[in-house]
Amino acid sequence: MTQNHSSAARARRYFASGPGHPVVLGAVGLGIGLVVWQIAGSAEPVLLSTPGRAWNAFIELVVSGKLFTALGESGVIFLIGLAIAIVVGVGYGILVTRARLLREGTQWLVYALQAVPMVAVAPIVLIVMGFGVGAKSFVVFASAVFPILINTMEGARHAPPELLDTAHIFRSSERRIWRDLLIPHTVPYAMTGIRQGIAMAFVGTLVAEFFLNATGIGGLMLSASSRFDISTVLALTVLSAVIAVSLMGLGRLLESRFSSWRGEEGR
Amino acid sequence: MNQPVQGGAVVELSEVSMYYGSRKVTDAINLELRRGEVLSIVGPSGCGKTTLLRAVAGLNRPGSGEIRVDGVPVAGAAPEGVSMVFQHFGLFPWKTVEANIAYPLVVRGVRKKDAVEQTRRLVEMVGLSGFENSYPHQLSGGMQQRTGLARALAVNPRVLLMDEPFGALDAQTREVLQFELLDLWATSAVTTLFVTHSIEEAVLFGDRIAVLRGQPSSVVELIDVNLPKPRERSVMATPEFARLREHVWNLVMSNEVPA
């Protein structure tokens, strides 16, 4: 048992620091993927494109300026939706832990709403809010708010009782309890939620552009696929993946920055 | 802070019964703390010492009975001028030593200039000069508790509640802090409720000792400690100290219902 364990550890060390450096391995994987794509694309030119043609389509989008317009449109609803989700998620998440009636009255609703897929709600949003920037930002907000809200509630609920006693003893006002205790304590938890929320907001952005009126990156994808322009669709798909990965990296960076004191305290 | 604080408040507990859920932990406790007096409360674990202390702070509500600080009933909110030192320090991990000590002043809306000045004096008094900008996790337990003590004194308390203040410290740090606290009391007598499970500590600090026992507990004996004041370390070697310690020990340990 111990021997197995140590050989597993040795194998892990080998793969972690051996000749297969993660970046090198990643590049090899990517290369193989592109080759497979090229072969498949040559064999089935109508249904699949090749990396080369996708690249050309991408350049065309850049040159025509369509890509930047689309990125701008998507960026606006992404940012508006995410910003509102952060304010509402963090604010409400702390508030419900302080107000028992509100918590018990709305908790079931939060969990129920969280389980509803956004795609199912999109038509209702369309009917109620139309299909402008407001409606789309709402879809982004609704996609991103739950992980932020739930992580914040989790954090605020675990505010150290001794610190709450301290605030009580020194006759702190509710406003100062938030400022001195609840917000600083909850920030690392909220950041975990925000990291997840960023990814969800990105998905929400594409959902909004697909199901309300077609604008932004989602809109470009939709119109390209209706023209059977597979090269453009694939170019945009790869672009979306790159954006999503970058956003998640940014989220993780933010999270680790804000959770530094949490790690030190838990020492 | 360096001149003696005059007196402190009178704290009265009348017929105070505390409950933990539906279980009654203390039964109609009657105690009166005189102005500037240190009352130690000892008793087996689970006898409700801490619960009583928290009730004086307004953190727990008595099931029945009343607690008055200078005649004013404690009802829910913490009474003005009641300060507390916690067993696990209760420091804000994201605030520096200075900010933790200044906390009660800031919460009270004391002018910044006065708060800074007062904080500097307190830092000096508890021997934390040079550590003003450290965070609690960078300090030893003893230094964290000095911070907690300085914070409790920042409001010029009328009543000081100490809940096992040295309970989380190692033996040596504990002794050092005990004697520093004695020094502090030599200059500033403030009404103090001192909850401890160390019988030596109860005798060393107390002007009187209330021994709690039973389930629900009641005060089985209220003992006058006739040791000279201000207390010094040397009293621990006197026969009177040993006699009191044995007496309290017998009260706490004898006929104890197995937990």
Oligomer: heterodimer
For the sheet with most strands of chain A, the description reads:
none
Principal-axes geometry of chain A comes out as: elongated
Number of domains of chain A: 2
Please specify the SSE layout and strand pairing.
The complex is a heterodimer of chains A (267) and B (259).
Chain A: H1 2-17, H2 22-43, H3 51-64, H4 66-98, H5 100-115, H6 118-129, H7 133-157, H8 161-169, H9 174-211, H10 216-226, H11 230-258, H12 260-265
Chain B: E1 11-20, E2 23-33, E3 38-42, H1 49-56, E4 64-69, E5 72-73, E6 82-85, H2 97-107, H3 112-125, H4 141-153, E7 159-163, H5 171-187, E8 191-195, H6 199-205, E9 208-213, E10 218-224, H7 239-253
Parallel strand pairs in B: 3-8, 3-9, 6-7, 7-8
Antiparallel strand pairs in B: 1-2, 1-4, 4-5, 9-10
Helix pairs in contact in B: 2-3, 2-4, 3-4, 6-7
What can you tell me about this protein's structure?
The complex is a heterodimer of chains A (267) and B (259). By secondary structure, chain A is mostly helical. Chain A folds into 2 domains: 29 residues; 209 residues, MetI-like fold (Orthogonal Bundle). Chain A contains 12 helices and no strands. Chain A is elongated. Chain B is an alpha/beta fold and 259 residues long. Chain B contains 7 helices and 10 strands. The N terminus of chain B is likely disordered. Chains A and B meet through α8, α9 and α12 of A and β6 and α2 of B.
In brief:
The complex is a heterodimer of chains A (267) and B (259). With 267 residues, chain A is mainly alpha-helical.
Key phrases:
heterodimer; A: 267 residues; mainly alpha; MetI-like fold; 2 domains; 12 helices; disordered C terminus; B: 259 residues; alpha/beta; 6-stranded mixed β-sheet; 4-stranded antiparallel β-sheet; globular; disordered N terminus
